[in-house]
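pinging the channel bc i need a second pair of eyes. not urgent but kinda urgent?? the chain im working w is below, pasted from the shared doc
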Amino acid sequence: MQEALNADGVVVQFGGLTAVNRVSLKLGKGEIQGLIGPNGAGKTTLFNALTGYVRLHQGSVKLFGDDITHLPPYARARRGLGRTFQIERPFEELTVLENALIPAFLKTERRQQAEARAWQVLEQVGLADRAQQPSADLNLARRRRLELAKALALEPRVLFLDELMAGLNPPALADMIAFVRGLSETGLAILMVEHIMKAIVELCDHVIVLAFGEKISEGTPEAVTADPRVIEAYLGGAGAAGEESPGSADEPTNETGES
């Protein structure tokens, strides 16, 4: 399997706090890896470090063998990194199509090509029929699809999904799981932070578990969910940092069914 992403010994500090401590991972082309752990474990901070939104204090990041450790986010996006954000923030004054068009311009200066790419990803995520609708009018499930469309408009080779499925009702969750699986089958490498264990178990080839910024376990979904350290820190009730376990009040409770 071709190596898509290699993060070695990543350390991120905020003042005197070490938020991510010597975390390494390797992600292969077409592979889906999950990143789980209690709230405050450092998952999103690691995402931000790998995608260029926070500075590494130690360690390195390589994309298909090229060192991108010191590149800003837009340069990493041009190299092939795409990501969604935990809290989706579409440009609400713009249409769905215009939201998808903006990231498409990062890969081309030609409007015709950018529009073609924007339409393509909206078709891909099932939002083409909403293209001229203001993005502010979308429900949560469709806002998540738009967030995904914006990432896909960058034509990524590695895709980071930050709690894309949180709060989705069962039909919308099943649709999103199937969609993400289809993306990996095209060869796209995917690293996903997710609290929905159904998605982790059904999708991931490999899972990394963080607690207090450190890797405490990794392996297949079956192996890590049986690991006593993971059960203690994450799956068995209160998390290591005293937070509630998955499926608790930290997950959105909005109605997300399709209208």
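so The beta strands are 3-14, 17-28, 32-36, 58-63, 66-67, 81-83, 158-162, 189-193, 206-211, 214-219. and Residues 36 and 132 are 37 Å apart (CA to CA). — does that match what u expected or am i reading it wrong
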